[in-house]
Amino acid sequence: MCGIIGYVGNKPAMPILINALLSMEYRGYDSAGVALIEQENLRLVRAPGKMANLLKKIGDDHGLATVGIGHTRWATHGAPTEINAHPHLDCQGKIALLHNGIIENYLEIKTKLQAQGHIFRSDTDTEVLPHLLEHYYQGDLGAAMRKVVTELRGAYAIVAICVQEPGKLVAARQDSPLIVGLGDKEFFFASDMAALVEHTREMMVLQNGDVAELCEEGVTVYHNNQKVGRRILHVEWDKEAAQKGGYPHYMIKEIHEQGVALRQTLRGRLERNAAAIDLGELDFSEEYIRGVNKIAIVACGTAYHAGLVGKYALEKMLRLPVEVDIASEFRYRDPLVNSQTLVIVVSQSGETADTLAALRESKKRGAKVLAICNVVASSIALEADYVLFTYAGKETAVASTKAYSTQLMIFYMFAIYLAARLGKLNASEQQKLTEELCALPEKVQQLLSDTEKRIKALTEKLFLEGRQDCFFIGRGLDNYVAMEGALKLKEISYIHAEAYAAGELKHGTIALIEPGTPVIALCTQQSLQEKMISNIKELQARGAYVAGLCFLGNEQIEQVCEETLQVPETIDLLAPILSVVPLQMLAYYAALARECDVDQPRNLAKSVTVE
Ligand code: G6P
Questions:
Q1: Any idea what DSSP says for residue 470?
Q2: Counting runs of H as helices and runs of E as strands, what totals does the chain give?
Q3: Which atom of ligand 1 is nearest to the CA of 399?
Q4: pLDDT grade, residue 192 (50/70/90)?
Q5: Which is the closest atom of ligand 1 to the Cα of 301?
Q6: Pocket of ligand 1, candidates 250, 254, 297, 302: which has the most ligand atoms within 8 Å of its Cβ, to mutate?
């Protein structure tokens, strides 16, 4: 997602801003810009697309400004155009500001400011911020920022400069990362350490609610209007390690980001104690949704597996038939799709050729298409009739992790939202589900910190003795998560893995079970537990070594299985968001033990743009 850099010191700022933005390219972006204070004037340069476009516009004239801010934007509100690129200015062009995150109440603020005569130029949520600063500004940018943040809802890391106070940068942080770098008579703001390690190893991580001011003399941090101290960390990482946030691979970093990513998916759509889910971005008319008689979900790879869970949730709540297709199969089977079918395409990248072709085929047949997508300016997002963005942040590792869990979150929200609109879910059922959805990000985080060591040890036990295959079994929803677990293991560790509906093994595949064959048995669906236990016993009778995956405190599964992996308890329907996490880690540690290239597995690509 967006990259932020701010500099104040005694060196020319432009090369420092440019290098920092280049070092944050890995975060993903679709436009970029800088603003510097040059002789009491603002120099603003912005360009759509990659950094090369911005560099071309900047040219050789780097100037001598020693204060400036820079940004790589990953579009959320508004297309990735020059006008929407950051920094944004106030009416008088004296304040320049950039932002990472989403201001949820921006429309409310914008309407108020417009009524006061402020002129807006972009489609972004961010632009309310420089205007709000202008509104409060009385000669002290820091004081104005402390007032601005009291009006904001949402997530933000903000950095601003003002020509009237040329030696100063002011920043605020809530739920989006922002780091202060402390050099020798030079100071920095950045959204990650990767941008700073070549300048300084002394860093300060701002906390939620902090407002910080930087000038050549140093940093001052305010919290609730009081000056506070923040701990200074000495960072040893090199640049590459810093890009991975100190993790050895992007995949494990992204696994760990799932709590935050899920919170981002919920943000603005479902808050704790909210009466209902707000999917205002879907302007479905009453007539249209009542006329839909079938849903068809189409996707590839991990997104297809998310679609299977989506089918289960939608059918359960809407009592409407839902089909799920692999995109490369869909268009060649003359699908039964017409204007009464709602087609849902699911794609992290929004560029997968087969999924895009399925979208076009569906539209040709008269269906409306809803995309569940992570990349805002992608082809699928642009061509779909409706879009629900997952807001998982950039996913770099080829093996998809946080994209999957956030896709599931969208499916659950969508199913609940639609069922409520169609009168198929009563208020108390809805409340039970939405409360639990809000609790899931925290449960994921708890799960990550509780089980990593245990999974590492189990992985070594299961796979180190040269085992070349593994089975993942489950019933109902567990069967779909088993498919994702098997895919993860195959793609990054190259261990042959097969997911099977637990009750179906005995019709052939059980012939492959030998003494010691590892089996991961997913047992989160309580109504199916007894049947699962029978299937586990059948496998153990043939020598399988079974690791059960169940809710914490499930003694029956603990007694039956050789090993258990436990996840915090939740409503059975929502279990996939939790149960997939240990499977992702299992694959990761298996790949690590086998010295595979975790982030770029052989033969695979992150985005497959050929059919
Ligand atoms: C590739 C990736 C998978 C991904 C699939 C669909 O095969 O390696 O991780 O699930 O494409 O990608 P999409 O971007 O459409 O979700």
A1: E
A2: 19, 25
A3: 9
A4: confident
A5: 10
A6: 302
More confident residue, 508 or 401: 401
In the chain, helix, strand, coil percent, each to 5? 40, 25, 35
Amino acid, res. 571: I
Give this prediction's pTM.
Answer: 0.78
DSSP assigned state of 201 = S
**Given this model, what pLDDT does residue 606 score?**
76
Distance CA(325)–CA(311), nearest Å, equals 11
Instruction: Give distance in angstroms: CA of 53 to centre of ligand 1.
Output: 28
Mean pLDDT, residues 30-49 taken together: 93
Which one, of 475, 470, 467, lies nearest residue 512 by Cα? 470
| Nearest residue (CA) to ligand 1, atom 15 | 347
Position 191 confidence tier, pLDDT thresholds 50, 70, 90: confident
Q: What is the whole-number distance in angstroms between the Cα of residue 254 and the centre of ligand 1? A: 15
* Contact residues of ligand 1, CB 6 A cut-off: 300-303, 347-349, 352, 355, 398-400, 604, 606-608
**Substitution candidate for ligand 1 out of 607, 609, 610, 611 with most atoms within 8 A of CB:** 607
Give the model's confidence band at 241: pLDDT under 50 very low, under 70 low, under 90 confident, else very high. confident
Look at the alpha carbons of 124, 129, 134, 139 in this order and tell me if their dihedral is positive or negative.
Answer: negative
Distance CA 259, CA 345 (A): 24
Cβ neighbours, 10 Å, residue 338: 12
pLDDT at 226: 95
284-300 pLDDT, tens per residue? Answer: 999 999 999 999 999 99
| CA angle (232, 235, 236) in 5-degree steps | 155
Q: What ranges make up the beta strands (E) of 116-209? A: 154-162, 169-174, 179-182, 187-190, 202-205
Running DSSP on this structure, what letter comes out for residue 175? B
State the catalytic residues: 2, 606
Averaged pLDDT for residues 405-425: 96
Ligand 1 atom showing the smallest separation from residue 300 Cα? 6
